[in-house]
Amino acid sequence: MKIFLDTAVLEEIQEVAAWGILDGVTTNPTLAAKAGRDFETNLRAISEIVGQRGTVSAETVSLDADGMVREAKLVTSWADNIVAKVPFTAEGLKAVRRCVDEGIRTNVTLVFSAAQGLLAMKAGAFYVSPFVGRIDDGGQDGMEVVRQLCEIKRLYGFETEVLSASLRTTLHIIDSALAGADIATLPYTVLTKAMGHSLSREGLASFLKDWAGIPENMRPF
Ligand code: G3P
Question: What is the pTM of this model?
Answer without folding.
Answer: 0.95
